[in-house]
Fold this protein.
Amino acid sequence: MKPSYKILQKDKKTKARAGIISTPNGDIETPIFVPVGTQGTVKAVDPKQLREMGAEVVLANTYHLHLRPGEDLIKKFGGLSKFMSWNGPTMTDSGGFQVFSLGVGKEGGGVKFLRDDPKERNTDDPKPRLNKITEEGVTFQSHLDGSTHKLTPESSIDIQEKIGADLIVSFDDLESPKYDYEETKKSLEMTNRWEIRSKNAHKRKDQLLYGVTHGGPFRDLREESARFVDENFDAIALGGAHLSKTNLYEVVDWTTDVVTSEKPRHLLGIGEVDDLFEGVERGVDTFDCVIPTRIGRTGFFFISPPSGNMKNRFRTDIDKPQFVKDMKPLDPNCSCYTCQNFTRGYIHHLFRAKELLSYNLISLHNVHFLVNLTKDIRKSILEGNFKELKKKWLM
Amino acid sequence: MKPSYKILQKDKKTKARAGIISTPNGDIETPIFVPVGTQGTVKAVDPKQLREMGAEVVLANTYHLHLRPGEDLIKKFGGLSKFMSWNGPTMTDSGGFQVFSLGVGKEGGGVKFLRDDPKERNTDDPKPRLNKITEEGVTFQSHLDGSTHKLTPESSIDIQEKIGADLIVSFDDLESPKYDYEETKKSLEMTNRWEIRSKNAHKRKDQLLYGVTHGGPFRDLREESARFVDENFDAIALGGAHLSKTNLYEVVDWTTDVVTSEKPRHLLGIGEVDDLFEGVERGVDTFDCVIPTRIGRTGFFFISPPSGNMKNRFRTDIDKPQFVKDMKPLDPNCSCYTCQNFTRGYIHHLFRAKELLSYNLISLHNVHFLVNLTKDIRKSILEGNFKELKKKWLM
C-alpha cells in the first residue's frame, strides 16, 4: 500500500487543516507532534506508554541508526517499527541534518544552531566530524568510533528503505545561516540535484518520500525551492530548524502558499508550543522535535496556561525547592499517566536522588503534553475554533 | 487493622509452607520475593509495571529515606505506599544494616560483605561513614552531605512509624563475620536489648514489627537468638546477608526449628535463585534483595533452565556480541512485558547505546523473574510438588 494524505477539514480563517496520512502501519491523524526516537527509542519512554498517550508516529534518525545498529540488522528484524516494538507508523530523516548541523561546521559556513542552548544541550551526545562535501555526497567520521562513512542521495535512500519507515526524506544539502544570497542559491541547486537523485533511487512503493525545501531566509529562493519540491514529490518537508522564529514563520508562509494543498507538510526539527500553533496556522501537518525528552532529562516539564505562558516557555524545573512538598501533579490540567499517578514532591525526590524513574515520568509527561496539544489543535480545527484555542495559549 | 499471618499449606517433605500475610494495604501471598525500592522506587521499574507483574510487597530502606526526603515528608504525603504511588503493601528495614555494613567498617570488625563483588557493585551508591556505637545507638555521617545523624532503637521505630510501611523491623546490632564467639555473643546481647527497646517504642497497631535473629555462625547463639525473638515478636526476620551460603542455610535451619510455626519469617537481603529454593525449603516466607535491579543496570539478565543453571548463576550478559542478531526474548520461558515484546537484539542495541529504556526493560524482567519464581514455588507447595520444582531448577 502506498501512503496517502487526505484533508478532512480546512480552517475558515487560516491555512490550518485537519487531515489524515494513511500508511501500511496505520493512520496518522494530523496535525500531530511526532516524538523523536533518535536511536530507535524515544529516550526514557516505553513504546507502550507512547501508544497509551496517543502518539501516532515516531521519527528516528537515519544517521544514528546507520552507524548503530546498522540498517541491515533493522531490516532483518522486520523494519524499524517491529524492531523497536512500536508497531505503528514511523518516519526517518535523511541523515543530512545530523552530518551537517552536528558537525564541526561546514567549510566556510561554521554551522552552529539553536540547539547550542546549554540548558537544553544533551552533553552526552558526541558529534560526528564532517570531512568533505562533493557533488557525489558527504564524507564524515562516526562519533562512535571515528570510522569514515559516506552519505549520498543514493545511500541515504538505500538505508531508509532498509530501515523501512513509512515516511522518509530526500537527502539534501544544508545551507549555513551565515551564507549570503549567492552561497544559499548554490547550496539550493545542489539540494535540488540531490533530491532528484534521491527520488530516482527510491524503489519502495510502500513508503512516502518527502522532498525538502530550502533557500535560507530568501523569499525568492524559498518559493523556487517550494515549486521544485512540489513538482517532484508527493510530500513536502520544510527545512528550518536553524532559522530565527520570525523568519521561520515567514518561510513557512512562503512555502505553503506555493505548494499543492493536497500534500502533507512536515516541519523538520521544530516543536516548541508556539511553533506548533504558528506552524499549524500556516498549514503545517506534522512536526518532530527532541525537545520534550531532552528537557525532560534535565528536569524541565511542560505546564499549560495559566501557569505556562510565552514568558516561561510553558515549562518549569522540577529541581526547584518549591516543589519539595508539592502534592499537585506536574501539570494539573494534564491527563497523562505521570500526572494521574504522581506528585511533584515525589518526582522532585526521585530527580534529586538521580533515580531513573524520574527521567521516565517527566519525559513521558512532556511527550504526552505536545502530542495531546496537537490533538487538541486538530479538534479545534474540526470544530471551527482554532483561533480561540491559539489565543488561549499564546495571549 | 493489625497485620496477620496464616499458613494455608505445609509441604509434606520439607519445612516449606504456603501462607498469606494480611496487611491494611492488601494481602501478601507467600513465599514471595520482595523487590527493593531503596529510595522509594524500585530502580528503573515503574510501580504500574510492578503491579502488572504480580509483585506483592516492596521494601524500602529506612536509612536512605530518613536522609532523603525524610520521614516527615513521606508522612505528609500519606505514607510510603501512597508517596511512591505503589498503593500496595510495603516493608522497611531498620536502617541498621546500611549504617553498619555499608560503613567504613565496625571498629575492630572491618565489615566487608558479599556486595563488594565488583561485577555487581552499584558504584554510584556512596557509603555512609560509621562514627560511634554506644549502648544508646549508632552515630554516623550521611553519604549525601556529611551531616551527623544518630540511629537508636527508638528513633528507628519513630522513623518507620512515620514512613508507615505495613511490615517494619526492629533495630539491631550487626555482628562482623570476623567476630569470635565472645564478640558475637556480646553483640547479640546488645541486639536483644535494642530489640526490646524497639518493641517498647512501637505504638502503631497497623504495623507488624519483626524481631531480628543474630548470633553469627554459632549454633547455640543462633538458637538463643531465635528463642528470644520468638518470645518477644509476632514476626521473625533472619539476619544473614553476610554469611557464606552453606552457613546461611544451616542458620536458617537452626532458626526455623526453634521459632513458632505460625509466625511469618523474612530472610533479610537474600535473593539468588538457589537461596530462594533453599530458604523456602527451610521455612522462609519472604526474601528481599537488590540483585535483580542491580545486575539489571549492568546488563545481566536472568535465564531459566536449561540455559540458566547453578554454574552461570541463572544469568547472562546482554552486552555479549552473540546477542546482536538474536531475535529471541531475554528468557524464552518468561511471560514478562519485556519478554513478550522485545528481542535480545533490540535490547543489546539499546544497552550498547546507553539508552535508559534498556535499564528499564532488563530490570523489569529480572524483578518479574524472581517474583514469579517464588509464585511458582508457592504453587508447587500448594500442589505438593515443591521438591520436583526445586530439582528441575537446581539439579
User: Anything to note?
Assistant: Chain A has a mean pLDDT of 92.
